[in-house]
Amino acid sequence: MINKESLQRHLLQLDNRGYKAYKDIQGNYDFSEFTLIIDYVQGDPFASPSKFRVRVPPNIAQIPRQLFNSRSREIALRDYLTRQFDRAAHSISSKRGTGKSGLIAVTGLGQEVLERTSAFIISSNTSDIENLGGVELRFAVGLPAGGRSILGLQAAEMLCEDIPQIVSQSLKYANLNAAECRRHVETVEDADWLRQQLAQNGLVAFVADGSILPRRSGVDNRPLLNNAVAFQSPPSLKVEFNCPNRGLISGMGIPAGITLIVGGGYHGKSTLLRAIELGVYNRIPGDGRELVVTDPAAVKIRAEDGRSVAGVDISPFINHLPQGRDTAQFYTENASGSTSQAANIIEALEVGRRKKEEGKGKKEEAHSFVLETELVAISEGDLVPVLLVDEDTAATNFMIRDRRMQELIAKDKEPITPFIDKVKLLYADCGVSTILVMGGSGDYFDVADTVIALENFQANNVTKKAKEIAKNYSITRADEGGENFGEITQRVPIPASLDPSRGRRDVRVKVRDVDELAFGTEEIDLGAVEQIVDSGQLRAIAAAMVYAKQQYMDGKRTLSEIIDLVMANIDAQGMDILSPFPEGDFAMFRRFELAAAINRLRSLSVVAK
How far apart are CA 254 and CA 272, in angstroms? Predict the structure, then answer.
């Protein structure tokens, strides 16, 4: 293996040559305490940065095994090391030349702790250091250029001086803040443990006392610092858990069934729902919502005017459309608010629902957490979805049809069966719980199992009062939901309708932030898929779509079966199976968001199973 000094000399010799000459440095280099691996070299200073890795062996990194002796802890540790490398890179690296020259950076990082391909733990096979771990860290480098000429001296400084400093500061346990590292790991482990307690306690979400739910702004997801009201559970909904690390905590448990979140405007209803919808992910210490956890199969549902819908059976909600349009295999390139919301619900059920073995409304058993060994991951598809709905982003005519409108427009003239008449059937027939933010319609009091009122960000259990109001002010509206929810039809994607190659041999996918994905010739708008929180998730979803097309779309398998196979492969082999070379900027996603991206392809064609 070539050593550091040889790389340094080579870079100096490349000075002032054309930028493409940097391609010569691709390979592995011995830096004594770590190995530098250059997997890919950019062809232009304005192109995507080069892809680098460092591998620090266990005898140098010396990370104690107790920090990665379970799946939960390992993911948290990898996240922590990624953040430390990012912090060190920002403090040490500097701008050198044009374009992206001088860049040393890892994948973008937010408040969520996600499984990423940016860092991996290396276990030792040597008995004398068997309790220590090493690190592989993947990052991007903008190789220095003046115009389109190589700046060899700056490159030598960057690769042979800056990178060793960054590695030393961030990937050697002796140079890390041990207490901070342990807190990061233990915070994530407690959240994972809490999430596994929900189903067996009849809950779909938990909000810990003392949580800070408001954010600084719509574009700043950090906790509000000034005048933030700490959350406190109503006494009647308070539950306690004895966490593995934090010990005894209390908070509000939201039970399975139909829950309304009500209250005046600006009192925190949507803020609470937003915390709950993102409770499917873990958060960093200090976020304020570290102990807000939600059923891992919770899906935010909203209206999405203009989206395409491909062959979805929306007949449980919408039928006998004018001109005899088929809703059992509904196609449109420009969905309305009501048809899009119906499709969003059915699509979530299609890829997430599993038949219950016993009892109506009873959830399947969640996967177990074994603190001493590992978190055994099972796909969210083995859990029944929990629907999260905010009236602010819902279609009014989909949510409710009041008594007066029923009198004016007869049911046989109204294609829409409103959600209010299906929500209890969803729970009874499918075990699907629903949490709704509702400020404008008291009709939902009749179907709610739990009603939580927000006043100045504080929660009160007003279920009894809501039921009394419903009894005293009877609305006598006709129930239009029928005797059962309806069947969920599985769909089989037509392979030719997914083409990531733009008609060429090469695959063409590109991600823009967290809401847009270029797939072949198509632009997929994911702005309404609110539980994609990281651009790395979208990059991994794009790669998973290509992988699914190449490996499993055969015109016979259903979409749900295809996603089952993709998620199982990732679980067994990691996200590296999605790419032909090591990627450092993938973040783990859920089956629901993968399905959402596929379902929004305007070219998608399907047949019913």
Answer: 12
